[in-house]
From TrEMBL, chain A:
Its main location: membrane. It comes from Aeromicrobium wangtongii. The keyword Transport applies. Residues 27-207 form the ABC transmembrane type-1 domain. Keywords: Membrane, Transmembrane, Transmembrane helix, Transport. Gene3D superfamilies: MetI-like. Belongs to the binding-protein-dependent transport system permease family. PROSITE patterns: ABC_TM1 (PS50928). The keyword Isomerase does not apply. This is ABC transporter permease. It is found in: Cell membrane; Membrane. The chain crosses the membrane at residues 31-53, 60-81, 87-109, 141-169, 189-210. It is a multi-pass membrane protein.
TrEMBL record, chain B:
Belongs to the binding-protein-dependent transport system permease family. It is a multi-pass membrane protein. Residues 15-197 form the ABC transmembrane type-1 domain. Gene3D superfamilies: MetI-like. It is found in: Cell membrane; Membrane. This is ABC transporter permease. Keywords: Membrane, Transmembrane, Transmembrane helix, Transport. The chain crosses the membrane at residues 20-41, 48-73, 79-96, 136-159, 179-205. InterPro entries: ABC_transp_perm/SBD, MetI-like, MetI-like_sf. It holds the Pfam family BPD_transp_1.
């Protein structure tokens, strides 16, 4: 069990907690990539998902295309893209955005679909415009599921950003794993893995809280209906 | 195309190991998750705990999981067993949720009727509950199959040979045809396994043929939604 004690020693070494190769810097980098790619993917996928959910149009196409995107192996897309973009972060960002789109899209349209038709009919009967129905009824009621899509996308990006470190250029926590593998530095590999897992669990926990909050802040009508 | 023609033997070998590394976790994951899901559907208190554990396990990034397993189960760092065990854990994590939904989808009235008709508990579980839960179980299994096939390729990073090796090698040698071959082959295997599962479902659950249209109906998003969200993993 020397791996365990070596890992503890690695994590306890203060040299690994400062500078550009230190855990805090790479953690912030990793979070930065994650936020950037999820934000880009959300800017693309959520408006489309809301439109599909609100109008019910092109739903079949969305299901099929997000399913097809999912069968794509991420490592393959990453290495293929990097042959064209060269060393650097572009290929990683492109791959991560592609990966984050399906869950965001599915969360947005499923969130709106989960809203009771009668509630929407009632909102329309009260004279709300389509935009008001969307922003005041559908989005608030579907929010827990929309956040669920965001949660799923974020976790996938956190996980895949480690794989993306295979391409020189992106820093982030994946460097500990890929560099450690290349140099047979197992304590570094295991310590890096532990930090990534801790980050994933912490982000997941935050999203669970957000989902609960969204559920609690839904309009009163749902609570009585449910 | 030239590259594919020149390397058919290598592609064939990698294809076989990729299939092997995918099918074992899919089958094991399904077999392990089935009784857990059945138990969870019976015991609401245990259900919360079991689904939370599944959710936490599913959160672990795959590359980190592959690398941390040797320390936990005592395998070598390069052992394919790390990949198989990690993917089985993911398969169980997805499938427990689907199996719980599946067994909960069986109407209690049907179960009462089966008991009244003289089914013993074990017979009822196998001859009544399992077939009726079949359609939802099948939908979960399809998600597990596609995500497992795609995830195996990450194993190439830790030196476990499979079609993902075409990505790492193609990247090193600047060979885009090799990488593209790997992508196409993996997508093809995923679609093939998915089609086989659908076919098996048609044969084993002939009464389910009309049911697909119902699941597309906007009024019943819950189960299909969870499965869509849980669709991919890296």
């Amino acid at each position: 069990m020397s791996v365990v004690s070596d890992t503890i020693d690695w994590l306890a070494d203060s040299a690994h907690w400062s500078g550009d190769d230190g855990v805090p810097h790479r953690l912030v980098q990793h979070l930065g990539y994650t936020c950037l790619t999820v934000a880009i993917a959300a800017a693309i996928a959520i408006p489309i998902g809301l439109w599909i959910g609100h109008t019910g149009r092109l739903r079949g196409l969305a299901v099929v295309s997000s399913g097809a995107l999912r069968a794509l192996p991420t490592l393959g897309v990453l290495t293929y893209a990097s042959l064209f973009t060269g060393i650097g972060i572009k290929a990683a960002i492109f791959t991560l955005v592609l990966l984050a789109i399906p869950p965001l899209l599915a969360g947005a349209y499923s969130g709106l679909e989960s809203v009771d038709r009668r509630t929407i009919d009632a909102a329309r009967a009260m004279g709300m415009t389509e935009l008001q129905i969307l922003t005041k009824a559908e989005i608030p009621l579907g929010l827990p599921i929309i956040i669920g899509g965001l949660r799923s996308a974020t976790l996938q990006v956190v996980a895949t950003a480690t794989v993306a470190a295979y391409i020189p250029g992106p820093g982030g926590l994946g460097r500990y794993l890929i560099d450690g593998l290349a140099t047979n530095d197992y304590p570094q590999v295991v310590a890096g893995s532990i930090v990534v897992i801790a980050l994933a669990l912490a982000l997941d926990g935050i999203f669970v809280l957000l989902q609960r909050l969204a559920l609690r802040n839904r309009p009163v009508t749902v609570r009585t209906a449910a | 195309m030239r590259w594919v023609q020149d390397n058919t033997d290598k592609i064939g070998d990698l294809l076989l190991s990729h299939l092997w590394l995918s099918i074992v976790p899919i089958v094991l994951g399904f077999a392990i998750a089935l009784p857990i899901g059945w138990f969870a559907s019976r015991h609401p208190r245990a259900k919360g705990l079991l689904l939370s554990i599944a959710g936490v396990l599913y959160t672990i990034p795959s590359l980190a999981f592959f690398l941390i397993l040797p320390g936990i189960i005592g395998t070598g760092f390069l052992s394919p067993l790390n990949v198989v065990v990690a993917l089985t854990v993911y398969a169980v994590a997805i499938m427990v949720r689907s199996a719980t939904d599946a067994f909960e989808s069986v109407s209690p009235a049907v179960l009462d009727a089966a008991t009244a008709a003289g089914f013993a508990p074990a017979g009822r579980a196998f001859l009544v509950e399992l077939p009726l839960a079949g359609p939802v179980l099948l939908a979960g299994l399809r998600v597990v199959a596609v995500s497992t096939v795609s995830l195996v390729s990450v194993g190439a990073l830790i030196g476990v040979n499979n079609l993902g090796s075409l990505f790492t090698e193609g990247y090193r040698t600047d060979n885009d045809a090799e990488i593209l071959t790997g992508v196409v082959a993996i997508v093809a295997i995923a679609l093939l396994l998915d089609a086989l599962i659908v076919l098996a479902g048609r044969i084993l659950l002939p009464w389910n043929r009309g049911a697909r249209t119902r699941s597309r109906h906007p009024a019943s998003p819950s189960v299909s939604f969870v499965q869509r969200l849980r669709g991919a993993r890296t």
